[in-house]
Amino acid sequence: MRQPLRFPWPDLDVDDVSAPVIAVRVDVIGTKDEVPDHRHRKGQLVFALGGAVTCRVPTGLWMVPPHCAVWIPGGMQHSNLATENARLFFVYIEPEVVDLPDRCCTLSISPLLREVIVELANQIANDEARVELLASVLLRELPRMPVQQLHLPLSPEPRLKKIAAALAKNPSDRRTLAEWADRVALSESSLARLVVRETGLSFGRWRQQLHLIVALRELTSGASVQQVSADLGYDSVAAFITMFKKALGKPPGKYLSGIFPEYKN
């Protein structure tokens, strides 16, 4: 059962704090946890030191594997779903103090910036000089972090929302485009055009992107390549690895060890 994430400061409204940067550590104990839909004035960086978190915004689903972070601009509605035993850091940043996009994006986080985030979350309130120093380093380094293509475009279009919800619930669903078109009362060609217009991707590429997000989430939670391949409905492990390598340039183990040095599977 999913439980709401518990913060160490349940009564604090981050938007009421004038500090340019606020960092807090959030540990998920045992079960999967989530933060329901909400928004705040400050921008938010969701950083995963261990485990993974999936962030949903109105226009997409964003994956945060270990040692990466997702940037959520201020004022944007979003929800966060963390894997079991995840180690997360939420960093809240005042608008206009950092040069980051006005859209969501997944960023690789360097070892230096990772340690800065951890130290910021560990600081006590009376060490203001150190907090200011760490915050200035974070604000300077963050715009330099490379962007990772780990998101699934979503659409408010009712028929696509229906398909996306069904695939998210059962990623192994292998119905063809024609079968989905029949389910939402469209012709196959009309559905194909609708998916491209609303997401910028073909139906096959869109579903593959969902598989990548699910695969990364599960692999970083400790699932084996064999288990993930089966859960996603692939006929063989080799077929899954081929898909993964074609999309991300490396097989699962090498890709994850590149962004997560401690990864072993």
TrEMBL record:
The keyword Repressor applies. SUPFAM superfamilies: Homeodomain-like (SSF46689), RmlC-like cupins (SSF51182). The keyword Repressor applies. Residues 161-258 form the HTH araC/xylS-type domain. Pfam families: AraC_binding, HTH_18. Keywords: DNA-binding, Repressor, Transcription, Transcription regulation. GO terms for molecular function: DNA-binding transcription factor activity; sequence-specific DNA binding. It comes from the Bacteria. This is AraC family transcriptional regulator. The lineage of its organism: Bacteria, Pseudomonadati, Pseudomonadota, Alphaproteobacteria, Hyphomicrobiales.
